[in-house]
Amino acid sequence: CRSNDAIDKNEVITNTIAYVQNALEGEGTGHDWWHIDRVTKLTKKIAEKENANMFICIMAALLHDIADEKLNESEKIGIKKVRSWLASQSVDHEATEQIMDIITSISFKGGNGLQLNSVEAKVVQDADRLDAIGAIGIARCFVYSGATSSPIHDPFIKPREHMTKEEYRHNKSTAINHFYEKLLKLKDLMNTETGKQLAIERHRFMEMFLDEFYEEWEGRR
Ligand code: ADP
Ligand code: NI
User: Could you tell me the domains of the chain?
Assistant: First the structure.
C-alpha cells in the first residue's frame, strides 16, 4: 500500500523512455537514442554495485543529453524543457533537484572538471564516459569526424593541445587525434571503482586498435 501522492517510479521511467526516444529521433551528432540506451544500461550496472539511488540514476541517464545545446536554442531552454518534463510526471522537488544537478554538472562543456556532488552524478558520468571509449567509442569517434568532415588521420596535424591558437582556429583536428585529446584520458577520470574496472578493457582495446592502425598506416602489415 502506498500513499496517494507517491508516484509510480516504473511508470515514470517508461514514460520518460518514450519521451526521450521521441525527442532524439533523427539525432545525428552522436546523441542518438541508442547512446542513451547504452548509457542507461551501464548506469544500472554501476548504480547497483555502488549502492546509488536507482531511480535518480536512471532518470538522469535517460535525460542527460536532452538539455544539450546542440538540441536546443540554448542551454537555459534545454534545462527548462527537462524541468517541465519532470513536473509533468509529478516527480517531487527533492528528486527533481537531484536529477537536474546531475544533468547540469555532467553534460555541459562548462561542467567538465566540475566537482560532482553525489554518488548518483558520479555513476552517470562514468556510464556516459564509458560509452565514449572501447569499440563503441571508436565507432562514435569516426562517425563524429565524418559528420564534421575531419580526416581520419594526418601525421602533420598535431593534437589540439600542441597547436598554437592560430593553428587551432584554422585546423580541424583528426579522428586519431581525438584519441589523444580525450578518449585515452577517460580511463583515469572514472569516478567509481566499478567505472574504473569497466574502463580497463575498453581502454586496452583502443590501444590495440591504435597499434594496428599505425602498423597498417606505415604499410608494415
Ligand atoms: P557527450 O556529450 O556524450 O559526452 P560529445 O558531445 O563531446 O559527448 O561527443 C559525442 C561523441 O563524439 C563522443 O563519442 C565523442 O568522443 C565524439 N567526439 C566529440 N568530439 C570529437 C572530435 N573532435 N573528433 C572525434 N570525435 C569526437
Ligand atoms: Ni551522453
Answer: 8-114 (1.10.472.50), 132-221 (1.20.58.1910)
